[in-house]
Amino acid sequence: MSEQVWFITGASSGFGEAFARYAIGQGHKVVAAARSIDKLDALAAEAPDQVLAQPLDVTRTSDAEIAVKAALDRFGRIDVLINNAGYGVVGAVEETPMAELRAQMETNFFGAVAVTQAVLPTLRARRSGAIVNISSLGGQLSMPGFGAYSASKFALEGLSEALAGELAPFGIKVLIVEPGAFRTNLASGGAMRHMPAHPAYSETVGPTREFAHAMHDTQPGDPAKAARAIAKALAAGVTPLRLQLGADAVDMVRGHAERLLADLETWAPVALD
Ligand code: NDP
Fold it and tell me: What pairing do the DSSP bridges indicate for beta strands 172-179 and 192-194?
């Protein structure tokens, strides 16, 4: 594969770090972006000629613009943008203060949009490249307690679907990635924000809360394998719009799609009346 430049947000941990290591291993250049660049020291030290460690808080639009300029100054182009930065909120809709819901959207949705807008002019000018948006199986379906998280990922998926059509004439691919549970820091105390529990929701949201607590370090998915799967999808002649990762994601998205079709068939006579 010819040398590429990968721009990865949230590269300090989990998936982002795994994507960066994969790209370095392939001989690519990497713009590793994170809120605190000291967390990128080890990565940058491993391959100083290949890595630009760049401060970027995706909720600050000006950071995105500065980071893209720094990437172009250093490497001359960007081939692959991976909008990966994100975190999770766990709580019933009623338990989630509006400020928490808005903050979730700011990072997982508006943050990805801001970085995409900053990168697009250079991708369009070169009429090539790819935008990879890290969604979740929670971007296709939801369950009690994941309303805020799913809202942010559904929003990202909706925008990505439109973007794919807008960018196809420029030869730019858009790939939505829907992982199941993978071993990253997402479920650790800091990255997963648990809303104050109301007893009224103990039966519906309680199991989700317990699942989110218990999954840390026991998730089946290996982020390094996710990186390889994404690279394979990007290199394919026909890149899919969506790529599920992990048996849990495949099973749950398939089940959801089947229920959607079954409901559609059942209610089509009413819809068409
Ligand atoms: P981690 O917590 O390990 O990594 C999240 C990364 O996002 C960190 O590098 C973190 O940086 C960064 N980040 C958070 N907020 C911001 C911000 N405002 N600006 C810039 N960077 C930010 O979790 P994952 O690797 O799992 O998460 C990566 C993506 O994968 C997320 O979008 C998540 O929703 C998605 N995902 C994860 C799944 C899983 O099971 N792990 C399943 C499905 C989707 P910092 O060090 O500064 O906090």
Answer: unpaired
Q: Which residues contact 179 (CB under 8 A, 6 or more apart)?
A: 15, 134, 136, 137, 221, 226, 244, 245, 246, 249
* Residue 13 alpha carbon to ligand 1 centre in Å: 7
Q: In terms of Cα–Cα distance, which of 176, 138, 11 is closest to 85?
A: 11
Nearest CA to ligand 1 atom 47: 35
Q: Give the tens place of pLDDT for each residue, 159-200.
A: 999 999 999 999 999 999 999 999 998 887 678 999 999 999
Q: Are the beta carbons of 32 and 51 closer than 8 angstroms?
A: yes
The answer to whether 132 and 78 are in contact (CB under 8 A) is no
Q: How far apart are CA 245 and CA 136, in angstroms?
A: 9
Per-residue pLDDT of 89-139, as tens digits, reads 999 999 999 999 999 999 999 999 999 999 999 999 999 999 999 999 999
| Mean residue pLDDT across the chain | 96
Q: Which residue has a Cα nearest atom 29 of ligand 1? A: 84
Q: How far apart are CA 14 and CA 57, in angstroms?
A: 17
